[in-house]
């Protein structure tokens, strides 16, 4: 227990050893000298300051680019990650600017890597944030997040695969997956009758220190001919099929059962007649995990467009019945026995161009967020009264779009007295009505953020609202100064005292707008 103000660490809860009591006492502030308590208090103060009426968010910086713009933890990346800009300073400033890279060095994907707490790491550079990037030529690089310096290099593709394209987390900040594009034979090879059985390659790494766990292939002979995609998350291998089927397998068990030989990065090897060094050019990584039999199936479900989510407590999953007529209808079922929860069919009956969407709340509360054009429902799982083994879906709170001034009369009367009947009604997400476009959660401040947009003619106006995550009460509304075109692609990031809006226009034109919190009681246009 670190003392926030210095001095000797406090004794552990005066002999309290029960975990529940320790957590309860910590929540009530018994350990005031704990550094974590000080951090939570500071965030609580920041939340109060942010939600004050006198606090404004000022547009401090705007930039435009012909290449995609990305944001990660206070850093803005431009020019295919060749330029890094800090958004933490009073005005964004360049951290580093590299010379333009060749097409062969283009970065395909990237992940931000942050130092784990309480672990001894082999290199001083490991304690600072770094960026793991995947290049078009199958190099995996670890770059310093502050300088862009290359800290580590791993060559991925040996003779087995030449098209690694995607980075993702199995366990966030611990186990990383590098996935290939789907293997497809050239047209001439297909015409010659050559069969392609390997669909994807997955390379698995432990991070900080970066170490190679293994590489495996997803083969038609094992998983079937209709596989369309694969993913790995939280120790589960997720295999998706063209008919909407989703199958789950124990990924850790697969690694243990089918590992032929472990290898370390930098180790010399003789593998299947090849001699080389693991992770070095031109040999890359050996495919040392060979799945020879179908692994035990943990779970399977059929869902429209392979949409499948797991969460809640006790565990539940969300699917859409696998027929087009059910698009927009969500079933919430128990993972234990596939039983549909009471009130488990969620259908907003939207008449809109863009469908509503649903997901488990990222605050780990087990709640569910269902977002429609003009309504956000936060739902919770609870036991059915007098039936402890059955769960029901109940409404926790709702957030409703401001459509007070919206009039949608189907019958109007002209000045001459003629009655005119409309032959159509407005869509639920008609641009001229306030419509929810983005819903996000700021975990450090425990705020639910929403972006609502209204477009009149060519001019669209958006505002970012902060809601109490527990009760849904509106705490703050921030108007965005720039025009918002609903036909463009938009991303909005809310990160403590920073709001960042990235917009993609036609012809690959990108814009970035940065807003920062300012506390000023003076009334001005900002």
Observed structural traits:
526 residues; mainly beta; four-stranded antiparallel β-sheet; 5 helices; 8% helix; globular; disordered N terminus
Task: Give structural notes.
This protein has 526 residues and is mostly beta strands. It has a domain at 102-184 and 196-302. The protein is 8% helix and 45% strand. The two termini are 43 Å apart. Residues 1-13 have low confidence and may be disordered. This is DCA17 factor. InterPro entries: DCAF17. Keywords: Membrane, Transmembrane, Transmembrane helix.
Write the layout of secondary structure elements.
Blueprint: H1 19-27, H2 35-50, E1 55-65, E2 70-72, E3 75-78, E4 83-86, E5 93-97, E6 107-113, E7 130-135, E8 139-144, E9 150-155, E10 164-171, E11 175-180, H3 187-191, E12 198-206, E13 211-219, H4 220-223, E14 227-233, E15 236-241, E16 245-250, H5 251-258, E17 268-271, E18 274-277, E19 297-302, E20 308-311, E21 316-319, E22 329-334, E23 340-347, E24 357-360, E25 368-371, E26 375-384, E27 387-400, E28 411-413, E29 419-421, E30 435-442, E31 447-456, E32 459-468, E33 474-479, E34 489-495, E35 498-505, E36 509-519
Antiparallel strand pairs: 1-36, 2-3, 3-4, 4-5, 6-7, 7-8, 8-9, 10-11, 11-12, 12-13, 14-15, 15-16, 16-19, 17-18, 20-21, 21-22, 22-23, 24-25, 25-26, 26-27, 28-29, 30-31, 31-32, 32-33, 34-35, 35-36
Q: Kindly state the mean pLDDT as a whole number?
A: 87
The multimeric state of the shown protein is single chain
Helical content, roughly?
A: under 10%
Radius of gyration: 26 Å
Low-pLDDT segments, ≥5 res: 1-13
End-to-end separation: 43 Å
> What's the number of helices?
5
Secondary-structure-based class equals mainly beta
Report strand %.
Answer: over 45%
Main beta sheet strand tally, sense and closure: 4 strands, antiparallel
The total strand number stands at 36
């Amino acid at each position: 227990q670190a003392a926030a103000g210095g001095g000797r660490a406090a004794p552990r809860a005066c002999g309290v050893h029960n975990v529940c009591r320790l957590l309860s006492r910590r929540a009530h502030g018994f350990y005031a000298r704990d550094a974590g308590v000080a951090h939570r208090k500071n965030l609580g103060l920041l939340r109060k300051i942010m939600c004050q009426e006198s606090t404004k968010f000022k547009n401090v910086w705007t930039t435009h680019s012909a290449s995609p713009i990305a944001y990660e933890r206070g850093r803005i990346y431009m020019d295919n990650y060749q330029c890094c800009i800090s958004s933490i300073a009073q005005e964004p400033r360049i951290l580093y600017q590299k010379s333009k890279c060749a097409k062969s060095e283009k970065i395909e994907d990237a992940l931000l890597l942050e130092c784990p707490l309480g672990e001894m790491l082999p290199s001083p550079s490991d304690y600072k944030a770094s960026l793991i990037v995947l290049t078009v030529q199958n190099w995996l690089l670890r770059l310093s997040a502050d300088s862009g310096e290359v800290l580590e290099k791993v060559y991925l593709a040996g003779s087995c695969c030449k098209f690694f394209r995607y980075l993702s987390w199995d366990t966030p900040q611990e186990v990383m997956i590098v996935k290939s594009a789907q293997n497809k034979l050239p047209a001439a090879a297909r015409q010659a009758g050559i069969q392609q059985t390997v669909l994807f390659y997955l390379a698995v790494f432990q991070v900080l220190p970066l170490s190679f766990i293994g590489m495996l292939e997803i083969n038609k002979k094992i998983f079937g001919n209709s596989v369309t995609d694969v993913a790995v998350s939280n120790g589960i291998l997720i295999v998706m099929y063209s008919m909407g089927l989703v199958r789950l397998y124990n990924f850790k068990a697969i690694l243990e059962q089918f590992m032929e030989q472990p290898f370390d990065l930098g180790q010399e090897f003789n593998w299947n007649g090849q001699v080389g060094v693991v992770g070095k050019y031109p040999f890359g990584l050996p495919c040392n995990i060979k799945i020879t039999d179908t692994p035990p199936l943990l779970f399977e479900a059929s869902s429209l467009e392979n949409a499948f989510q797991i969460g809640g407590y006790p565990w539940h999953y969300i699917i859409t019945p696998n027929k087009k007529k059910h698009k927009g209808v969500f079933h919430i079922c128990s993972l234990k026995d596939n039983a549909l929860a009471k009130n488990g069919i969620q259908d907003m009956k939207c008449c809109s161009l863009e469908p509503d969407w649903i997901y488990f709340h990222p605050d780990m509360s087990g709640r569910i967020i269902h977002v429609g054009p003009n309504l956000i429902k936060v739902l919770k799982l609870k036991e059915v009264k007098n039936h402890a083994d059955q769960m029901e879906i109940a409404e926790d709170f709702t957030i409703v779009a401001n459509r007070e001034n919206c009039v949608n009369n189907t019958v109007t009367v002209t000045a001459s007295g003629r009655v005119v009947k409309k032959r159509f009604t407005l869509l639920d997400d008609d641009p001229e009505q306030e419509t929810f476009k983005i819903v996000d959660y700021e975990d450090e401040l425990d705020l639910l953020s929403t972006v609502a947009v209204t477009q009149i003619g060519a001019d669209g106006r958006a505002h970012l609202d902060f809601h109490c995550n527990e009760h849904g009460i509106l705490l703050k509304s921030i108007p965005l100064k720039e025009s918002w075109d609903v036909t463009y692609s938009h991303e909005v990031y809310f990160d403590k005292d920073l709001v960042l809006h990235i917009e993609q226009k036609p012809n690959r034109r990108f814009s970035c707008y940065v807003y920062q919190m300012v506390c000023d009681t003076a009334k001005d246009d900002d």
